[in-house]
């Protein structure tokens, strides 16, 4: 009998959440509203101020992003 963790194997099959960048448009009690370059809006937990460009993954602000021009590529 093998000592494998079936739950761990299942989790390993799931992809990691994508890293996204967007501009903070509102902050309320540690919850940031972020507008993505394509026009989408999401909320994430974390510390940021209105107008910041931030990296977001899995509903969490990971840090500030550089203010660079964004090129959208449709796939």
Descriptive notes:
The chain has about 80 residues and is mainly beta. It has a domain at about 15-65: OB fold (Dihydrolipoamide Acetyltransferase, E2P). The protein contains one helix and five strands, in the order αβββββ. It has one helix at about 5-15, and strands at about 20-30, 30-35, 40-45, 55, 60-65. Strands 3-2-1-4-5 form a five-stranded antiparallel sheet, with no helix packed on it. Strand 4 and strand 5 form a beta hairpin. The chain is extended and about 55 Å long. It starts with 5 loop residues before the first helix and ends in an 11-residue tail after the last strand.
Average residue-wise pLDDT? 90
CATH topology of the domain at 17-64: OB fold (Dihydrolipoamide Acetyltransferase, E2P)
The percentage helix is 10-25%
Q: Ranges with pLDDT <50 over ≥5 residues?
A: none
Q: Note the run of SSEs as H and E.
A: HEEEEE
What does the oligomeric state look like here? single chain
Q: How big a fraction of the residues is strand?
A: 35-45%
Q: Which strand order does the major sheet show?
A: 3-2-1-4-5
Helix and strand layout, with pairings?
Blueprint: H1 6-13, E1 20-28, E2 31-35, E3 41-45, E4 53-57, E5 60-64
